[in-house]
Amino acid sequence: xxxxxxxxxxxxxxxxxxxxxxxxxxxxxxxxxxxxxxxxxxxxxxxxxxxxxxxxxxxxxxxxxxxxxxxxxxxxxxxxxxxxxxxxxxxxxxxxxxxxxxxxx
Length: 105
What we know:
Strand content: 5-15%
Mean pLDDT: 95
Largest sheet: 2 strands, antiparallel
Shape: globular
Oligomer: single chain
């Protein structure tokens, strides 16, 4: 069984379902946006090593809405190779804010 198949099977287990339900009930919000968790929210593994997938230490998880989860994975693909990607993202966001919110020309 490959890693993706193992993940799929593990997510069907009672252990996983109970763990993720309890974590969402406890945390209640998206860790990135601090918005209320929506239907279909995800329990995100922060430890991506295959051998640690079944380690249900709550410290190793974040609760995220679907779009936040997509953003986290998208940025992580660059961040793991180049940590300055976050500074560049912040620069872009600041520029957007400056021009859009402050009505600057």
